[in-house]
Amino acid sequence: MRIATYNVEWFNSLFDDDGKLLMDEGWSGRHDVTRAQQTEALGVVFAALDADAIMVIEAPDENRNRQTARALEGFAAAFGVRANSTLIGFQNDTQQEIALMYDPAVLTVRHAPQGGESGKKGSGQAPRFDGTFRIDLDVDAKEDLVRFSKPPLEVEAVTASGQVLQLIGTHLKSKAPHGARNEHEAMKLSIQNRRKQLAQAIWLRQRVEDHLSAGESLMVLGDLNDGPGLDQYEGLFGRSSVEIILGETGQNCLFDPHARLGLQRRLGATPTTARFYLHEQKRYLQALLDYIMVSPDLAAKQPDWRIWHPFDDPDCWTAPELRDALLMASDHFPVTLDIDL
Fold it and tell me: Which CATH superfamily is domain 2-338 in?
């Protein structure tokens, strides 16, 4: 079985309100890329992945006028994608949903939110992801209330053989310091936003521990937008979101080989899953942002992880159509996990 996670930059801009693809020369959400170019590139990438399930990060919007499933299932039909059914959980207000595309002949899935409803006062014990988490973020002995701008998608998936998997699709993101009037305010907002992201990681880690303590097979997959050495504020807090979610020590740790390598080699070469152009510096920045973390029982099956990086993966590099499509489709590259279930 192949499980994938893929952050598709502004997937939403490729559809109209009826969920129909805008295969035209209008500009997509990507810089200097038309909607037709990005859509066709995504068709090539999704076909090459041929995954049983794909956790789509930045999926098309869900609101009163638009439906994520209608858009993604139309895309799958247009390009013959085997993962032609779609599941979403709690919608958000960012026009970037988290959705699972899956092959219904291989998997039966349902939205399976865990945790209790928190109410306005919040809860310190891993409430439902559309609720409020109560935690002291600093040293003022006063608890803060934290919410997800993009609530993680919790999925219970059952394979044809009866194997039950718990999947948590996530998109953690520390907001840019919008509204800052000077460097001091920008620093203050950046620290506040990163502190909030780490609180969300602690919230997610509590849910991970609940699943692992119950002996359940678990995958946490998606874009954590955080990792060792990513920004100057990491040293201030001591740990990244990646380290928090993976776990520190003991049996209840998740495993991802790319995360492990990144944490061990802070000054050396590490795998990367995203490539961004820095206009002011006129160069590209590469970063490790996308992960598929698995529970110990799944890691024991010796799955095969792969980053579909057009410059780092030889099979992608030597296939010109796929290589160009990966660069055109998104600023992130897919990550897959092949596992015998």
Answer: Endonuclease/exonuclease/phosphatase (3.60.10.10)
